[in-house]
Amino acid sequence: HAGTLDDELALLLVHGSLHLMGHDHAEPGERDRMWSAERRLLTELWRPFPRDPWVSD
Question: pLDDT at residue 16 above 70?
Fold first, then answer.
Protein backbone atom coordinates (compact mmCIF):
# COMPACT_ATOMS: atom_id res chain seq x y z
CA HIS A 1 0.00 0.00 0.00
CA ALA A 2 1.10 3.51 -0.68
CA GLY A 3 1.20 6.14 2.00
CA THR A 4 2.13 6.62 5.61
CA LEU A 5 1.12 4.65 8.66
CA ASP A 6 -1.53 7.31 9.30
CA ASP A 7 -2.87 6.78 5.76
CA GLU A 8 -3.09 3.03 6.36
CA LEU A 9 -4.87 3.52 9.68
CA ALA A 10 -7.37 5.90 8.05
CA LEU A 11 -8.00 3.35 5.30
CA LEU A 12 -8.50 0.52 7.80
CA LEU A 13 -10.87 2.62 9.88
CA VAL A 14 -12.98 3.58 6.86
CA HIS A 15 -12.85 0.08 5.36
CA GLY A 16 -13.85 -1.58 8.63
CA SER A 17 -16.62 0.96 9.21
CA LEU A 18 -18.05 0.24 5.78
CA HIS A 19 -18.09 -3.49 6.58
CA LEU A 20 -19.91 -2.77 9.85
CA MET A 21 -22.46 -0.79 7.84
CA GLY A 22 -23.09 -3.81 5.60
CA HIS A 23 -20.77 -3.20 2.65
CA ASP A 24 -18.83 -6.10 1.16
CA HIS A 25 -16.41 -6.70 -1.71
CA ALA A 26 -16.90 -10.36 -2.56
CA GLU A 27 -18.38 -9.61 -6.00
CA PRO A 28 -17.05 -7.13 -8.59
CA GLY A 29 -20.09 -4.82 -8.33
CA GLU A 30 -19.88 -4.79 -4.55
CA ARG A 31 -16.16 -4.11 -4.72
CA ASP A 32 -16.70 -1.13 -7.03
CA ARG A 33 -19.36 0.35 -4.73
CA MET A 34 -17.23 -0.18 -1.63
CA TRP A 35 -14.13 1.23 -3.32
CA SER A 36 -16.12 4.29 -4.38
CA ALA A 37 -17.44 4.79 -0.84
CA GLU A 38 -13.90 4.42 0.58
CA ARG A 39 -12.48 6.99 -1.82
CA ARG A 40 -15.31 9.44 -1.09
CA LEU A 41 -15.02 9.11 2.69
CA LEU A 42 -11.22 9.20 2.73
CA THR A 43 -11.23 12.33 0.57
CA GLU A 44 -13.83 14.03 2.79
CA LEU A 45 -12.35 12.96 6.13
CA TRP A 46 -8.65 12.55 5.45
CA ARG A 47 -7.13 13.04 2.00
CA PRO A 48 -7.30 11.24 -1.32
CA PHE A 49 -5.28 8.09 -1.85
CA PRO A 50 -3.09 8.23 -4.97
CA ARG A 51 -4.19 4.80 -6.27
CA ASP A 52 -6.37 1.79 -5.58
CA PRO A 53 -4.86 0.20 -2.45
CA TRP A 54 -6.32 -3.24 -3.27
CA VAL A 55 -4.43 -3.66 -6.55
CA SER A 56 -0.84 -4.88 -6.26
CA ASP A 57 1.77 -3.48 -8.61
Answer: yes
